[in-house]
Amino acid sequence: MGYFYGPVASRRLGKSLGLDLFSEKTCSFDCVYCQLGRSKTRYSQRVSRVNLIKLKKELAQIISKKPRIDFITFSGSGEPTLHENLDQIIKAIKKVSGNKYRLCLITNSSLLYRKKVREELKGFDLIVPSLDAVDAKTFRKINHPLKGVSLTKIIQGLIKLRKEFKGEIWLEVMLVRGINDSLSQAKKLKKIIAKIKPDKVQLNLPVRPGKRKFKLTDPERLAQIKRVIGKDIEIVSDYYDGKKEFKASGARIR
Q: Is 249 a residue whose pLDDT tops 60?
């Protein structure tokens, strides 16, 4: 099994070469919308799985074919920050690629409160952290976190990341109908976003939710939430109800 997959077409990132640090699902959450299905075990202990020699060799082979790559994206079967020494992996990729490609991290934000983790992320150009809840009850209902992972820690970690990280931060919010898509929650989210200060906020929908199916937030509500939170909001998922696609009025779909 290789470490890389793609490049694949991404609505947000263009042509993205994915990097999967784990051979099986390894996560601190058991999100209700996860397209990989349920988390049999949740983890907080960081581990090392990647053989850097093999990773560099594989990347060199991919690059030799000169594919279009807009980003190399750390994502896949698990939460990337659960892997140790991310800074060394970043360094290896930049050495092989000649620092030619932008590096992106997609994370559930669960370990960003740890200073060592944040320090390892400085080599990324873009971090896409998620924040799906504005209160502890909703957090547990959507993300089913490992015991000891709190919403307060996550928000504090995001605020610290913004102060320390020199690249871009695109905050992603996955909306689950009937759980976190009320206008009252949108108002609370707006206040939290003001503290985090991301470069962008992106609203997403669970259109590929694994075995657990959801009715999607309707386009009118999406547009209302967008207006409540503010002008610098993107809706990055098409609304699809099985028959036809809708676009939320006033929303920017990518």
A: no
Q: What is the mean pLDDT of residues 181-199?
A: 97
Could you please report the per-residue DSSP string of 30-58? --TT-TT---SSB--S-B----HHHHHHH
Under DSSP, the state recorded for 206 is -
CATH architecture of structural domain 4-246? Alpha-Beta Barrel (3.20)
How far, in Å, are 162, 183, 209 from residue 35 at the CA level?
28, 26, 4
Paired tokens of 172: 């992603």
List the beta strands (DSSP E) in the chain: 4-10, 14-19, 71-74, 102-107, 126-129, 168-174, 200-204, 233-235, 239-240, 245-246
CA distance 173 to 136: 15
Residue 248 pLDDT > 50, yes or no?
no
Three-class DSSP category at 222: helix
Per-residue pLDDT, 40: 64
**What pLDDT score does 29 carry?**
87
Burial of 18 per CB tally in 10 Å (0-12, 13-18, 19+): buried
Greatest alpha-carbon span in the chain: 51
Residue 143: its H or E element = helix 136-143
